[in-house]
Amino acid sequence: MSTSLFSKTPTVAVLDNRSLTVRDIAYHRHPGSPDVTSERITRHQYDVRGFLTQSADPRLHDTGLANFSSQTDLTGNVLRSQGVDNGITVALNDTAGRPFLAVSSISTAGVGMEDRSQAVTRTWQYEDTTLPGRPLSITEQVNGGAARITELFVYAGNSVEEKALNLSGQPVSHYDTAGLTQTISIALTGVPFSVTRRLLKDADNPDIVADWQGEDASDWNGLLHDETYTTLSIADANGAVLTTTDAESNLQRVAYDIAGLLSGSWLTLKGGAEQVIVRSLTYSAAGQKLREEHGNGVVTTYTYEAETQRLTGIRTERPAGHASGAKVMQDLRYEYDPVGNVLKISNDAEKTRFWRNQKVVPENVYVYDSLYQLVSATGREMANAGQQDSSSPTATIPLPTDSSAFTKYTRSYTYDEGGNLTQIRHSAPATGNSYTTDITISNRSNRGVLSTLTKNPSDVDTLFTVSGQQKQLQPGQSLVWTVRNELLKVTPVVREGDTGDRESYRYDAGSQRILKVSTQKTSNSIQSQYALYLPGLELRTTKAGATQTAGLQVITIGEAGRAQVRVMHWESGIPEGIGNDQIRYSYDNLTGSSQLELDGDGNVISMEEYYSYGGTAVWTARSAVEADYKTVRYSGKERDATGLYYYGYRYYQPWAGRWLSADPAGTVDGLNLFRMVRNNPIIFVDPDGLSPSLRTQLPGSNLYEPKLRTGEDRNRRGASHLIPSRIENSLVEGTPIKLEDALTEHALSTTPILTDLINPTKVSMNKVTRDILANKSMAGGILAFNAIRFSISENKDIHALRIVDSETSTYQTGEGTVAAAYWAPQGGYVDIPAHPMTGPKVVLTPGFSGCSFVADKLNEETIRVRHVQGGKEDLEYNNLTADEHGQGMIDAMEYRDYGYHHDSQGNLMENITGSAFMIYENDQWNLKYQSLANAPGISSLREESFGFFNKKTRLTGEIRHGEGKNVVKTKTLSLHH
């Protein structure tokens, strides 16, 4: 691809006299017309206080519309927001800053008028002021109708029994939209030992809505099904989960190395013997996976580009001596352009084939425009492939051996100025499989549908709900949504005067799917399929009428290395041609798509390749019955019978390359709430339907747009608050240690790094140090540091960083422990050399509980490191002048990075606090951070002498700490620039 296409296409920010960005200008060129450059301007307006009030993209601004407008209170909290994609919402907090009232699904009824006929009002109730103020319930009301209590919280008391189970004061019963979740016991570390789920009665009926009216559990439990599903866990003293027993008594066991990284995993099916899932793993010094061996004897190795650490190869093979014979099963090779776009993916394990005067190479080649949108992709597809739609692809059986199975294709993609994919052109000349898919985009929003639904842009908005949910999938296929904007029901087949086919869903309080029910009418009965999603387990049942014909347990291995491992155990109705307790190892590609499935002996079950936006290009299996049981496919997500992919918060239409509903996270990924992964699905991945996992890259560089998330976008939706452990105060002796010893990889992954002692109220400091810490100039500097190790118990330490100056005692200085480091003050910055030849090679900063740690490239010689305070992202970073950002952001650690982690059950937990530092190693700066659960603290430090003839000195810290593991997640960001 010619580099001239990207020449002189910068991203430009225009600032007003308050340094607020009022214009974002991008320059678009297409490879098909490289001499034509179009200027695309996104416009922003602000109120007199500097809060954003309106944004408009290039397409809608030309029609006189704004994508978003908002009104804020005096502190900047958004009270009312209006978006062309997601409608109008109103939100109010109480005096404590907690959610109090929210009204959504408000539409416009003319200039300056609102239509609340479909409005949903949600209210939160809390304990009174004599209690801690915990939430009690959430009530929902539709269009002024009867109020339903959709969520209810019950807390444990202070009885002897509750104390014995560590439950005192904890939320032990959560009644939600799916039923009841109960916490039966908790470890001192906060890890749930026993959790039970019960569903609503008739939960499979989509018309049943939870309403937890009544005075006590006797009223509420009457709405529940009798069956309970209990998940058990065992954790070590640090809080690391070692075993998990699912609701059907299948046990998963894991082990970790000294750095806290996975070293092996095992599975014991109920009544069976333990079997290996992951035999061994090897990591680099930076924590990147280099090699893993699974229980089927298959080995996967990973290679990385030395300069950028980008993944360049994934090789999966049966090694020499394997019982099934040595063979390379998959050998993926990645080639990138200088900014990280993938240009080519080849599979060297597959051979080049020749058919109908064409050379069919097992590779994909990609072309981008100057905005890094994918505009062309070439690859191979099955020779019998037809036009892509919502129907399930048919696998080629058995695995092909001749050259006539594959042919070449080219796909071209067209986008409008708002980033909407408007056309997909497919061409496979050798088989005549050529067609065009057109998407009609509204002239008043970014809502869009296939042209088979309408070709008139003025009609598109009528095919969506007020909040931006699509109401038809294909002509005649209706979509129904809950008041929480979750997909409730799809009717793929409608029969006039008769029962239609249907697929319905039920979700928990975090909007995560817990139940799927599919019904199809056969010649003489109704066949129903049920899928219940539990921690580490899917229970899938098939019924003909009221008679169960099959019962399948799918055990999903939580720690299986890179592969997704699923074990299929039939309780009844095992199909012919597939063995019971089959293990399926699914090996993925760069974006997590399941490409290769192997069995427990390392033999191929199936192979699948995908078009760029998710359709199936190649799909072959050794048997039809095994192909039918592959559900996890593109991007590692489940494909439903509707053809939709379920991502967690949204559903995705691969045949249209767009989401089915507006982004519930708002503008976290730009003004277009329907755009899929920034129109670059080759490098970007959306893990949950909220936003891609990578930042917005600046054209022509390795840098990113200097923008941190603000407001609610800082948070991760659906997280539960971490259950606090019991707090103790202990006097603990401290020992001065070298700064470098507190910053090793092992220390980072096991020991909390605290900055409590970098505080003039707790330790003595001279005036120079106090002035730097006071941050009067906003700029940091170079200070001398060491660390103090406090050993609370045999296996539990704390590392406290401290500044060494003229006020520091000789004992606290410690012999040979002191080293210089840069200091980035909270709310300020420090400038450091991009490649230090002499001087400090460490950057330290205060601990984090809502703040961000970000590095900008000022120029080729200097990096500016900022500690941005939570809630002040615009003031301290986003709205700074272009000169203060220099060439752009290298990378950042934000609250959503360190403030959350997944517990042993896969639940998203909010832990709030973290620690971070930067260190120069291997010719580059790395930003390293740790997420801390129930973070300890240091209340005071005192030094005392003892002994009469042989006087000694002792440091004692008053340490506030809980039981169990504090470091729950670590990560290293390589600051390539």
Automatic annotation (TrEMBL):
<protein>
    <submittedName>
        <fullName>Type IV secretion protein Rhs</fullName>
    </submittedName>
</protein>
<dbReference type="InterPro" id="IPR050708">
    <property type="entry name" value="T6SS_VgrG/RHS"/>
</dbReference>
<dbReference type="InterPro" id="IPR022385">
    <property type="entry name" value="Rhs_assc_core"/>
</dbReference>
<dbReference type="InterPro" id="IPR041508">
    <property type="entry name" value="TcC-like_repeat"/>
</dbReference>
<feature type="compositionally biased region" description="Polar residues">
    <location>
        <begin position="385"/>
        <end position="403"/>
    </location>
</feature>
<dbReference type="Pfam" id="PF18807">
    <property type="entry name" value="TTc_toxin_rep"/>
</dbReference>
<feature type="region of interest" description="Disordered">
    <location>
        <begin position="384"/>
        <end position="403"/>
    </location>
</feature>
